[in-house]
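Friendly challenge for the regulars: who can give me the structure tokens for this chain first? No prize, just bragging rights.
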Amino acid sequence: MKRLKRYGPLIGVLLAWLLLFSPRLLPGITIKSLAWVAISAFLFWLLAFRRWSLWLAVVVLALAGVLDIFHVYFFGKLTDEYLLATALRTTPAEVADFFSMLPLRPLLLSALWLVWCVLSGRWLARVAPGVLRGHRFLRWTWSAPVLAWLALVLANAWGSDALRWQIHDKTYKIYPTHLAWAAWKYHLMGTAVMDPPLLPVAAAAPAQADTVVVVLGESASAQRWSLLGYQGDDTNAPLRGLDGLGVSTVLARGLNTAGALPFVLTGQASADSVRHRAPSFLDLAHQAGYKVFVLSNSRNAPVADFFDQVLSRSTAVYRKLGDGGPHDGILTPAYEQALADPAPRKLIVLHTFGSHEIVQDRYPPELARFADPYDNSILYTSTLLKQWTGMLDASGARRSVLLYTSDHGLIMPPCSSDYRHGRSLASLVPFLAWANAGARALLPALLPPGGHSNALVAEGVIRAVGYGAVLQQPGWPGSANPTFEGHSWQALRGLDACTLR
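First reply, four minutes later:
Bragging rights claimed.
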């Protein structure tokens, strides 16, 4: 009893402190993740010796826990730089949409987590400083993490680049430093993207298409495309029988726009794009002598970001025609004007709002033909693709090409109670290629066999404008045989369809 009385409060302090770092286990409980919880608690142990620093730690860990509860619920991993990119470009309308459809499970878990943080913080603030000062050995344990942090700082300051990367690979696993690393990575992306891209020195080969149209979709999943095997509503009815059309299923290399769209634009992740100063397909088209148009119905971000910069830096005409509404048909008049432009070679990019949540708001009432609102949104996209393809065919361009894909898909019933961002096989998205008679010989290259990511759009445009040699360079990552968190294209379909685990 004497030992329990003496060591009981100490054991309680240690357990309560450890549990404050437990959100590190949200992506999955393994021996490694348990070890990182212990390491994280140890490295921040010095904060438990004073009431003010302890409360500071509790507040930071409470907020980090709430962020990670939602991020893991939606995306299966701890908060990263793409959440920051998404948050900073989110508009009030998107915030309203998000809060109107918050799922109950992460809300309840967040509420329980905050209650636990308040209760444990009050108890630790009252008990911990006295308990720690009351043990001779424990009085000095704060110095060990100080020395560990000092060693990391010195190694990062004086070590080689290889050692710095090793330190990053380890320290981002220390909870909650992943938030600091996410902020730093976003900062690097935001500053480095202002550097001009490294363009090919060699001139482009003869162009294979005179007018290239790229439709960037949003939140469209291949599993709801009837042309790709969906047995429910005929969501692609307008496209059936369209001459010169081919479709396939590709993998979105991200679960939200911030993570996925860079692959479509440059063929690489955003971090790799800015590190390598990678040109987008718009940059290469401009370099090849094309007049570039970007017409967007995406939400107007409050600050210029990676996407604004990449979409506008080589663009002759950059117009935001809607703020996610009323519907993507708002792009049609400006698209008609771009097709009529006298430039002999044109690249026209239509950035749509597609099937973004809330899906029942993504199509006009007259196209509410099906019981499922998501199917209606895909039908509306198919209607626009048919219309825009017809306009391109009638424009008089000798060789014309239209490419379409979505940045990512949505998780949907039965994996979810509603349509929302998240992990599932709905990350497989549609890819569509159309070519008129003059460019029909290019179609097989635009639709290669085998598994591909939606970076196939970038590769298709690069081939069409005459820079196909870029795709043969050793550093080009390629869209073929994509992987998702270490899983091959073939293995991906063997995972749980709702969680990809």
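The longest helix spans residues 104-133. DSSP finds 18 helices and seven strands in the chain. Your move, everyone else.
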